[in-house]
Design brief:
Structural class of chain B: mainly beta
Strand content of chain A: over 45%
Helix content of chain A: under 10%
Shape of chain A: globular
Distance between the termini of chain B: 41 Å
Largest sheet of chain B: 6 strands, mixed
Number of helices of chain B: 0
Oligomer: heterodimer
Radius of gyration of chain B: 14 Å
Number of strands of chain B: 12
Distance between the termini of chain A: 33 Å
Largest interface: A-B, 25 and 21 residues
């Protein structure tokens, strides 16, 4: 694929359910980032992965949020026991290395009812 | 921690005219990058222009240029000859260059400015 892809495009869930959001980075990109865009908080960093290094999880808002990156490629962001305040657009980005330009995917819009 | 502030929630411009979007930031670092991203209704963030703090020359990309004032910590975006396709949300962003710092790699965004282009 030419760009970063994310799935699903939209997700509606009920409060208390777990959700998984997927990100496919640009092939060969070693760095992968997750951001959250919400009305109340704007655009905020969540977590990033760089190669085989330990991820920087400093932006995760609570222990209900976790992410993994398998095989240095695809990443999954998991939100457990979703709350209404988790409703937001979740954006994924990748770069060929941490200092380089970040290319963004189209995002997943999560709605928690 | 770094902060980025965009004080204009909304701006509008007539097609073919020029508009300037404002951005200020706060940091104690001397070396960093600044960016302007465009987010159309499709939600996909697109890099418009970037500026390295150590470069005094203002970056330009076709109709887009910046006015980077390091001492004032100001980074405005000028869009010349505005086109209908320029209508979008614009975000100013900061990224540290300090590989050993806690902010390395992360983009810190401003609140965004919605730009409307009138035909």
């Amino acid at each position: 694929g030419a760009g970063v892809s994310q799935s699903p495009s939209n997700k509606v869930t009920e409060k208390g359910k777990d959700v998984e959001l997927r990100c496919d980075p640009i092939s060969g990109h070693t760095a992968l980032y997750w951001y959250r865009q919400s009305l109340g908080q704007g655009l905020e960093f969540l977590i990033y992965f760089q190669g085989n290094s330990a991820p920087d999880k400093s932006g995760l808002p609570s222990d209900r949020f976790s992410a993994e990156r398998t095989g240095g490629s695809v990443s999954t962001l998991t939100i457990q026991r979703t709350q209404q305040e988790d409703s937001a657009v979740y954006l994924c980005a990748s770069s060929s290395a941490v200092p380089n330009e970040q290319f963004f995917g189209p995002g997943t819009r999560l709605t928690v009812l | 921690a770094q902060t980025v502030t965009q004080s204009q929630p909304e701006m509008s411009v007539q097609e073919a005219e020029t508009v300037t979007l404002s951005c200020t930031y706060d940091t104690s670092e001397s070396d960093y990058y600044l960016f302007w991203y465009k987010q159309p209704p499709s939600r996909q963030m697109i890099l418009v222009i970037r500026q390295e703090a150590y470069k005094q020359q203002n970056a330009t990309e076709n109709r887009f240029s910046v006015n980077f004032q390091k001492a004032a910590k100001s980074f405005s975006l000028k869009i010349s000859d505005s086109q209908l396709g320029d209508a979008a949300m614009y975000f100013c962003a900061y990224r540290s260059s300090n590989a050993g710092g806690t902010s390395y790699g992360k983009l810190t965004f401003g609140q965004g400015t919605i730009l409307t282009v009138h035909p």
